[in-house]
UniProtKB/TrEMBL annotation:
InterPro entries: 6-blade_b-propeller_TolB-like. It comes from the Eukaryota. This is Peptidylamidoglycolate lyase. GO terms for molecular function: peptidylamidoglycolate lyase activity. The keyword Transmembrane does not apply. Signal peptide: none annotated. Keywords: Glycoprotein, Lyase, Signal. Transmembrane segments: none annotated. It comes from Mytilus galloprovincialis (Mediterranean mussel). Its EC number is 4.3.2.5. GO terms for cellular component: extracellular region. PANTHER family: PEPTIDYL-GLYCINE ALPHA-AMIDATING MONOOXYGENASE.
């Protein structure tokens, strides 16, 4: 049996994470991206894939006032994009974002003929052709074809 907790590494940041709500691996760049929900940003850290001694080092932060609170993120290695969903915060529209690793928003998306209410998770299919969003209140899954 493998024990993955023998030598835990605590990730650092330029600021504390405030409710880290989702995590995704960007393997080809040796990065871990964390949805820092209450700070409304995505924090990137070294993943320690190529060098276990370089794990958890803060690399950069991706933020945009349009995000509001970042609830979930997923990475698609086929197009090298982050897929991000925010949650209700009052003034921000609840929507999905396609974001480059440079931090630029490439696209936004919502279900056709309805709105997101409380998206809570996002996943990308292995071939990169579909994005799935799980919501609470209402409890539903929405599939987007790219």
């Amino acid at each position: 049996m493998l024990d993955f907790f023998l030598d835990p590494v605590e990730f650092s940041a330029d600021d504390e994470l405030f409710i880290p709500h989702s995590i995704t691996l960007i393997e080809e760049s040796n990065l871990v991206a964390v949805a820092d929900r209450e700070h409304g940003r995505i924090q990137l850290f070294t993943a320690g894939i190529t060098d276990p001694n370089d794990t958890g080092r803060f690399v950069k932060s991706i933020s945009n006032s349009r995000f509001g609170k970042v609830f979930a993120i997923s990475y698609d290695p086929t197009d090298k994009m982050l897929y991000v969903v925010n949650g209700p915060t009052g003034s921000n529209k609840v929507e999905g974002f396609t974001v480059g690793l440079d931090g630029k928003i490439r696209d936004t998306w919502t279900p056709r003929n309805m709105n997101f209410d409380e998206p809570h998770d996002v996943a990308v299919s292995p071939d990169g052709h579909q994005v799935y969003v799980a919501e609470i209140r209402p409890n539903r899954i929405t599939k987007f074809n790219k």
